[in-house]
Amino acid sequence: MSQRNEPGVIRERNVMVPMRDGVRLAADIFRPDSSGRFPVLVTRGPYGKDGYVDNPDHSVWFFSKHGYVVVSQDCRARFESEGDRYDPLFQEAQDGYDTVEWAARQPWSNGRVGTTGQSYLGASQYTLAAGGPLPPHLQVMAPVSASADFHQSWAYHTGGAMEWGWMVPYAIHKGRNTLARQGHEELLSRMDEYVVSPDNFAQPLRDEWYRHLPLKDWADRLEQTAPYFREYLDNEADGPYWWRINLLRHAEGISLPMFHVSSWYDIFLEGALNAYQALRERGGSDLARRSQKLLVGPWAHLRPYTAPTSRATGDIDFGPEARIELHQYLLRWFDYWLKDVDSGIMEEPPVYIFVMGENRWRSEHEWPLARTHYTRYYFHSDGPANTRRGAGTLSTAPPGDEQADTYRYDPADPAPTRGGSTLIISQGVADQGPVEDREDVLVYSSAPLERDLEVTGPIKVHLFAASSAVDTDFTAKLVDVRPDGYAQNLQDGILRARYRTSSTQPSPIEPGRVYELTIDLWATSHLFRTGHRLRVEISSSNFPRFDRNPNTGAPLGRDARMEAAHQTVYHSAAHPSHIVLPIIPR
Questions:
Q1: Coil, strand, or helix at residue 469?
Q2: Cβ–Cβ contacts within 10 Å for residue 109, how many?
Q3: Three-class SS of residue 434?
Q4: What is the number of alpha carbons within 13 Å of residue 171 lying toward its C-beta?
Q5: What residues contact 260, with CB distance under 8 A and at least 6 apart?
Q6: Which residues are catalytic?
Q7: How much helix, strand and coil, in percent to the nearest 5, is found in the chain?
Q8: What are the pLDDT digits (tens) for 519-567?
Q9: What is the pTM assigned to this prediction?
Q10: Tens-place pLDDT, residues 267-315
Q11: Contacts of 508 by beta carbon, 8 Å cutoff, 6+ apart
């Protein structure tokens, strides 16, 4: 049935699209109310396509008013679509392929198809690209806020810890539709007991449920709600389970132009940066290698790019320039590739980033920037302990004969998450002062800067450390300290010690032995102003964003036992702990 909902657009509801195995997926078709054939944009998600209609961050009306047919589809086993099992991410390559080819054959289609969408609707694009041969009629993509490596920034994080803050509440949120389809009303009520506010969208767990051990109990609790969760726990190490949908491992087979969009406080920032770089360097054709675009803003995940609030992230308002009309950028992108319109977008530099602190956009010709000066800032302190804010120092001078710093990490009392690149729990900028006052957080700060200092690019901490445990975690955080003392988090990371040399082959550490541990903080773009200080925090927890390491060496989630660990961080000529910052000359 056709129904007009907005002037100039026809909406066809619940058009059933057949997949190769006979299952039919429901789609709403938004097409211009005029004769002729049009290019098609496919967007596929698990949250209910009706919910996208009134959301300004989605594109169903916008693009259909600009001469595109938009196919907005419920994923398999979600809402109006058929299917017995929802297998997030892994099902999207085959179903996405079939949907693209179906769209290309329709009487309103000119056979030229692109994809668009944010978050999971971006992930369904990356998995389609990585999952095998590309649909012949697919010409271009625009994934927004999505992972490219789903072990490194979806279920787990670079360094091996689980993204605990959102994993279970997200499974509960999506599981409501699964349980409703199956008629499990009693389980729906039980799920409500776990979250803070069951009547609101995607709520965090109650504190006692974040802390519940063993974690494997959640596999049983979610057996009907999210049966895939057990597989996530069973595949803690990276490996073939995750490689099937890892775009970075399939870059040589991808020959599509892509517009990658993300933000500095996005939980999936890894996806845009790494996918852009991988396809620029290893894409499957010259067209792909020279036709990638990257845009990174100052927002957190799910930031409404089309609304006034898109200029703020947590405590920070990044100013009027932070607000952009992302749809206008994407319209120029699709017009060029699907309508042969000389929109000018391919004459512009391929990288467009927002420099925080300076609060302005800047175009660049590559990522990372070719003019980067990778600079070591070394950790220093005057005594055997550094457990109070400001006790340690940070400078470009290598350390000499200095005593190590120590702290006790007790997983029963972890350092709390305050903002950051998170999802469901609090996101974006937050003052780190309360965390830095803890006795299990080491703090290293520079002297006030005598001139502005820009940090733009990838960031890594090289930590020389020992532990009393056979396995433990070390965390690192880069912070901008203002003259008034406010400590603005910029980026953070974690390393599970058993994954120190391999993400696929874990191995215990020897208690008391010093190891060089590399903690990946991904990347940022930030101008440290004159009078501000650089700061690095070192700890062993960031909870509930990351699951707590119990220090026992047990596989993830198997038991409820926890042990305290005594951690030692070295900064000496033989063991020069430091952070490598990408300094951009100005």
A1: coil
A2: 19
A3: helix
A4: 25
A5: 143, 271, 272, 273, 275, 276, 292, 293, 294, 295
A6: 119, 266, 301
A7: 25, 35, 45
A8: 999 999 999 999 999 999 999 999 999 999 999 999 999 989 999 999 9
A9: 0.96
A10: 999 999 999 999 999 999 999 999 999 999 999 987 656 655 567 788 9
A11: 470, 471, 498, 553
